[in-house]
Amino acid sequence: xxxxxxxxxxxxxxxxxxxxxxxxxxxxxxxxxxxxxxxxxxxxxxxxxxxxxxxxxxxxxxxxxxxxxxxxxxxxxxxxxxxxxxxxxxxxxxxxxxxxxxxxxxxxxxxxxxxxxxxxxxxxxxxxxxxxxxxxxxxxxxxxxxxxxxxxxxxxxxxxxx
Length: 162
Hints:
Elements: H1 2-10, E1 15-18, H2 30-40, E2 44-48, E3 55-57, H3 61-78, E4 90-93, H4 94-103, H5 109-121, E5 126-130, E6 132-134, H6 145-161
Helix pairs in contact: 3-6, 5-6
């Protein structure tokens, strides 16, 4: 969230692209996001690993189960109308991102999910582009037991309040 706030202060355009800084998202997909946005005049365009020809490469079974499980639970409880709620490769209208940042309270893994749930709650439109996600070459994921517990708490909070 703090990187988003910093980036918004310096962004001069009408759209902001959010992506992992570890190069696990291929920059060339940016053009597909722009095309999808123009096609449907969407407020948000989200990369999805779980629709069309999207996919995940380089994750072990545990990581795949955690990601699929988090998305499944969110689909069942919140019906957000988007297929990949934990991904972090997205294009936002700048004013939409600013509004969502004001509304979102979560941190960590649950933050991406809350952004989509709040966007639907506020009536924003969301388009999806299938992406292939390749696990990072350098560094390690911050996803551990504490993040999973935080995600579940955030999910239940959103279920109770939306």
